[in-house]
Design goal:
mainly alpha
Amino acid sequence: MVDKEQDQAPAAQQLTPQTEEGPADRAENANETKVPKPHGGRAWAGLAIVLSFIALAASGYVAYTLYQKQALLDADVLGTLDQLKANIQQIENNETQVEREVERIKKQFSDAKHVQDTLASAIEKITNELGRNRTGWALAEIEQLLLIANYRLQLAHDPDTAIAALLAADRRLQQLAEPRLLPIRKLVATEITQLQSLERADVPGIALKLGSLADGLQKLPLSVEDRFRPPPPPAQAESETGAGSTFWGVLRQIWLDTLGLVRIRKTTEVQKPLLAPEHDYFLRENLRLMLYGAQLAVLQADVTTYTQNIEAAQKWVSDYFDTDAQSVINVRQELSGLLDAKITVELPDISGSLTALRAVASNKNES
């Protein structure tokens, strides 16, 4: 230890500058070294305390701020969690609704599939049935067409409609294209040819002529009886024969006048009573009805009614109208021509194709 102090002493001596100091100076330095200055330490201590308080305040502020941020963060996290929970609940509810909707759609799809299967089965059944009965349906349709042709020809005397029905039946037979139906097509072709070559009556012309005669009845003059006409004056030659004697001429004139007072007529004809003037309207209207009846009979091909009405009209015109008038003569000639007119023709029999078709259909049903 002594050696170390001795070693340090010269070092201290070396570090310390050598100055010439007196005893007083050395005493003052010694005192300064021993007693520190009080004012400088207190300042540093106060400063340290202030700094400590500032650091403590800053630490508190930082801690408070961190606490506030943590609280806000916790609140945000809790709000987010609540929102997520609400969203999850909404998603679950939506999922439940979607599942219900899916179940409903599945049920509707199942029902629709069932209906579709039912319809498909029915359509398939109908298709098979129609496929098996195609010829039967076609034969039934052809039979109806042939029936229409026969009815229109025989009942309505309408050969044009009968030809149209036969042509339609021939087209349906052609579409079937079956060899066993060829004889029927041949019969139908023969019947069509017979109807097309049939002589036609001018029914519209006859009907129009009858209507024209009925409209002109008002202008026909009525007849006047000859027995009510004044007698002709005596001949001038007879008066001149008695010119030589006045007495005998006067007597002859008296005798002629006496004979003129009484007239005796001998006739074998049945005299018709005169028609009163007020009956003129009824005469013309009844005659007009006769002509209209003949017109309707022409359209219906009723030969008997047509002939009866024309003959009755001829008789009435001859009995009640002036036969010397030219208009009456024209009417009588028109009625005579209408009476001889041909309003119907002999219709052919077109039932052969219908009978043959029914025989083929019957054989098919039995087989």
